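Need the bound structure for cobalt (II) ion, inputs here:
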Amino acid sequence: MTQTLLGGLSPTRFLRDYWHKRPLLIRNAVPGFSGLLSPAAMHQLATREDVESRLIQGSGSHWQFDHGPFKKSDFKRLPKTEWTLLVQSLNHVLPAADALLARFSFIPHARLDDLMVSYAVPGGSVGPHFDSYDVFLLQGQGHRRWQISEQTDLTIQDDVPLRILRHFKAEDEWLLGPGDMLYLPPHVAHYGVAEDACTTYSIGFRAPTTDELAQGFLMHLQDSVALEGRYADPDLRLQPHPGEISRAMLSQIEGMIARIQWSKRDIAEFAGCYLSEPKPNVFFNPPDAPLGYAAFNKLTRKSGVTLNPKSRLLFIGGRFFINGEAFNSAADETAALQQLADQHQLAAFPASLRERLYDWYEAGWLEIAPT
Ligand code: SIN
Ligand code: CO
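Answer from helper R.:
Posting the output first, comments after.
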């Protein structure tokens, strides 16, 4: 199945020759695919408070950008051409979208961001731009003309509410129809214009900047560093300027700060917590009428459990990280938890895991698998 998705390439060859390196057009990557939801269902999602949506209108150097949530009447006022509605994290609210994302498991879950969908009327586009992330652009219904360029001039137009390239020079062009897919590594300029009413599904990835990782690590260290001692100056000499911070004072402070150290374990702990942290706008919905512990056990023994699509469960050996929290698995739990992290579902699990899974169920992090 992955072979079809990648146009006959094995995941190993795709990773070696294309991933993060060069674009790839794959005709009929998902045979029979024509999208996961109707325009009306997308309008409905865009009215929700808990769903991130955007509306982009315009072309050339005239663009209008609005953030959702929208009112149903907002869509009635729109022209027949040149607008795009974007809905972020479709995989959080639509199980079929989560299943589509699962096809991309040849990339580590820690790198995966979300599935975004766009609905565009003829001429609709978000303009020529580049992204800082890898992306797979899978065509749903209708047709979109994609132009791409590996140009080095990535200057952005001033005075427009979107990141639009000032000089876009197409080097390649394709018309994508239902089921076709275009893979783009970061920084490849692209410009997609809807030929007819069409939907495009973007499988996006996370790539934190060095600065974001460093800032995150410093915050993590703040909680784990505990150093002994206090500033001390038994050798204090009379200084001509009492208002001056002396060299001796600075070198003692430097020495104290140089005692901050970290190990590979600190890095692993930080990486697990950081990479499993959901985005700040993600909120979990605990079940309205949760089953009691006994009923939960009875049902899950029969049908198993699935991870809620918003949950991020990752591991390093027997150390597990779920939604920013860390814990160790007992030896007999490791294989089951690793399977849940890899496949997001688990048909059977050791009895010792019941309490932990029940806590996750009560928090809305995990669900009882449908029978
Ligand atoms: C779109 O779906 O219109 C935009 C997706 C992208 O360019 O990243
Ligand atoms: Co883009």
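Comments: Residues 129, 131, 190 surround cobalt (II) ion (ligand 2) (CB under 6 Å). The chain has a mean pLDDT of 96.
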